[in-house]
Design brief:
Blueprint (H helix, E strand, L loop, with lengths): L1 H12 L2 E2 H12 L7 H13 L3 E6 L5 E5 L1 H13 L9 H6 L7 H30 L7 H27 L10
Antiparallel strand pairs: 1-3, 2-3
Pfam families: PadR (PF03551), Vir_act_alpha_C (PF10400)
GO molecular function: DNA binding
InterPro entries: Tscrpt_reg_PadR_C (IPR018309), Tscrpt_reg_PadR_N (IPR005149), WH-like_DNA-bd_sf (IPR036388), WH_DNA-bd_sf (IPR036390)
């Protein structure tokens, strides 16, 4: 259900086509909330049917640019203020860590080193995105300020996961069970 609200939030900032929204998802949200092209187009149709968005303009080859309606903006605000937050974190790395005892110690060390490197790189990617935003490239709008809060959460989350993967490398491995 959150894809619906993510699209409403993105369209509240400015009208966009399905392609543009897919690009924004990948650039702005890809590491924390991925969405694929077919998912986005399917949800756009549902939002339009519900009257929460409408076609702003149509271009060549059937390209449609959508904009949020007043009802859509009200629904996004209602979601932000009235709906309980789903704090479920489905992190596959943590699920896998529950079963590290099945891995050979050498494989486990290599895996954890790769995890730490990945998370450090992801945190650096968020930091670079923040530097671009802070550099004035995107202005000082309320949307950019909110995005800065999200970016900081991404930096802290990925740094914490990198720290965890580095710490886990110091835990003596269990003997693998066959």
């Amino acid at each position: 259900m959150s894809l619906r609200y993510a699209l409403l939030g993105l369209l509240a900032g400015e009208p966009a086509s399905g392609y543009d929204l897919t690009q924004r998802f990948e650039k702005q949200l890809g590491l924390i909330w991925p969405a694929k092209h077919p998912q986005i187009y399917g949800e756009l149709n549902k939002l339009a049917d519900a009257g929460l968005i409408e076609i702003d303009s149509e271009g060549p080859r059937g390209r449609k640019v959508y904009r949020i309606t007043d009802a859509g903006r009200a629904e996004a605000k209602r979601w932000l203020t009235e709906e309980p937050v789903d704090r479920t974190a489905r992190l596959e790395p943590l699920l896998r860590s529950l079963f590290y005892w099945l891995m050979d110690p050498e494989d486990l060390r290599a895996h954890l080193a790769a995890e730490a490197a990945y998370y450090r790189q992801a945190a650096a990617g968020f930091e670079q995105f923040a530097a671009d935003k802070d550099g004035g490239v995107y202005g000082d709008s309320p949307q950019v300020k909110s995005m800065r809060v999200t970016i900081e959460a991404g930096v802290k989350l990925y740094e914490a996961l990198a720290d965890w993967a580095e710490w886990a490398q110091t835990v003596p491995p269990a003997e693998p069970q066959d």
